[in-house]
Amino acid sequence: MSASALVSNRLPQLMLELPRLALAGERRFVPTVVLDGLQSGLPNLWRAASYVVGDDPMDILPRVTCPTLLLWGERDTWVTKSMGEQLLEGLPEARLEVIRGAAHVPMVDRPEAFNALLNDWLETLD
Question: What is the pTM of this model?
């Protein structure tokens, strides 16, 4: 199953999980998503989300030859680690790092860990 199909199949469930995610470490991110959805209208939010997951990027990933760092939140229930592992398999120059205790927005949930991993990775580049 493609990454876009995985997300697309779960989209209604993900929308319903917003309140629970607010209690699981997404405290700053979820209000933004909900506010944007309410301001633009739920049909627009749904249409935009459907558009984003409509294409399957897996076919073009092998053509991305630049170094790529995938930073994943250990507790991310929106985009699971298995999806990150699929990206890792498709990207020839990728590295996957999982940030313990972080959810979908690791740079907000665990900024120190996020920045440390990013800085370490940047130092490996030419």
Answer: 0.60
Question: Looking at residue 78, what is its pLDDT?
Answer: 80
The three-state DSSP-derived secondary structure of 41-74 is CHHHHHHHHHHHCCCCHHHCHHHCCCCEEEEEEC
How is the chain split into domains, by residue range?
3-124
Q: What stretches in the chain show pLDDT beneath 50?
A: 1-4, 6-7, 26
Residues 76 and 102 sit within 8 Å (Cβ to Cβ) = yes
CATH of domain 3-124: 3.40.50.1820
Q: Closest Cα partner for 53 from 90, 10, 89, 104? A: 10
